[in-house]
Amino acid sequence: MTQKNINQYLEHISSADDLLTSYEATRAGFLSLALEKNRKATPYVDEARALQKAALKAKNAADLVKIKGIEVGLLTASGLSDKSLKHLEEPDKTQAIRQLIKNFLEPAGSQFVDELVYRFLLTRGDALGGKVRNIGGLIAQEKLMRTILSCLSIAGIESFVNFRGRKTWKLKKDIETETDASIAGLYWKFEDKDRCLKNNITVPFIGTNVDMCIFNQPPKLVDINNPNHYVALGELKGGIDPAGADEHWKTADSALNRIRTAFERINIMPSIFFIGAAIEKRMSVEIWDQLVNKSLTNAANLTDNEQLISICRWLCFTL
């Protein structure tokens, strides 16, 4: 850790209370989550409408099997996920539909179409739940990446990005379609220093996943097995619910301790930082104490724009 990195947190926080998440930020966070959930739910609602429109052609529940183009809808209403359908043969699918009609749709009488749509949406709701379970984390990562890119942009520094599932790195200004939430890596150069940030990678000599790692090499030369390539490592917790704040911090704190222990064994200590959305009183005190005793190099509340910009400028230009 270089001298200029010490106490950088004082540029945006002066006490544990500064780290606390305000009521206004919590409210805004919940609203943001609700909007994103609704956006992701829209395709499922559209599917349900299409299924209802087609099913209304049937005179009774048994006639549903005669309607072309709704088999997957019937299978979904029977409780089968898209993933499970890949492992079932046609006789199994036929049996599932028959059981749906016999046990649930026929007993509903003239309301069989409504019953069909309700059961379809129940299964799709499970799929939606899986997608939105980590939605807070995705929103947090998008906000962090967007802020880092903004800091680099106003400094006139070109950045290269790597998206999840891609091997190539492209100049950020040439990309218009991808979202910041899907960024797996960033690369920039400042004052002849290479900086490469990678999200969510398993560090071999630590043995666990780390949310953010910053290296002192260009992407092609980064060796995640080489401790000397690491400039900083950090944890990002985007959950906004105050009820889960302490649990998120416990998880992050354990991860940060594993990072410290792994590097202390080899007498190397990169900068270690934490960024969180929901920070309550007890955890704010613990974070502040770690900053003061220098076991944590920097920290910020994700919902406070001034703090977020400050820690991102530290990541971009000070490390």
Describe the protein in words.
This protein has nine helices and eight strands. With 319 residues, the protein is of the alpha+beta class. The chain has an eight-stranded mixed β-sheet with strand order 2-1-3-4-5-6-7-8, sandwiched between helices. It is elongated, with a radius of gyration of 25 Å. The mean pLDDT is 92.
The strand count comes to 8
Residue share in helices? 40-55%
Q: Which descriptor suits the 3D outline?
A: elongated
Category from helices, strands and their pairing: alpha+beta
The residue ranges in which pLDDT falls below 50 over 5 or more consecutive positions are none
Strand content: 15-25%
Spatial separation of the terminal alpha carbons: 9 Å
Q: What's the short version?
A:
With 319 residues, the protein is an alpha+beta fold. The protein contains nine helices and eight strands.
What's the structural blueprint in terms of helices and strands?
Elements: H1 23-55, H2 71-77, H3 82-85, H4 90-105, H5 112-132, H6 135-154, E1 159-163, E2 170-171, E3 183-190, E4 193-203, E5 208-215, E6 230-237, H7 245-264, E7 271-276, H8 281-292, E8 298-301, H9 305-318
Parallel strand pairs: 6-7, 7-8
Antiparallel strand pairs: 1-2, 1-3, 3-4, 4-5, 5-6
Helix pairs in contact: 1-5, 2-4, 2-5, 6-9
Tags for this entry?
8-stranded mixed β-sheet
